[in-house]
Amino acid sequence: MFTNIERAEFTEIIGQPTERESSAAVRFAHYCMLEEAIGAVFGLMTLWYVVCSIARIA
Q1: What's residue 12's pLDDT?
Q2: Helical spans, DSSP H, in the chain
Q3: How far apart are CA 32 and CA 21, in angstroms?
Q4: 44-53 burial by CB neighbour count: b if 16+ within 10 A, else e?
Q5: pLDDT block averages, 10 residues each, the chain of length 58
Q6: Radius of gyration of the chain from its Cα atoms, rounded to whole angstroms
Q7: How many helices (H) and strands (E) does the chain have?
Q8: How far from chain centre, in Å, is Cα 52?
Q9: What is the predicted pLDDT for the residue at 11?
C-alpha cells in the first residue's frame, strides 16, 4: 500500500492578493498615525498657549 502525500508550500496557502491587501492596510495605518501625530502637536501647542496665558494673567 502506497500513499502519495504532497507537501503544501506557504505560497500556496497564502496568495499574492493577501499580501497586497496587508501592505495597503499598513500604509493606511501609517497615514493615520501621522495624522494623529499632527493633531497631538497642535493639541500640545494649544495647551501650552492656554497655560502661558493663564500664568501671564495671574
Answers
A1: 52
A2: 10-13, 16-57
A3: 16
A4: eeeeeeeeee
A5: 63 54 78 89 96 92
A6: 26
A7: 2, 0
A8: 34
A9: 58
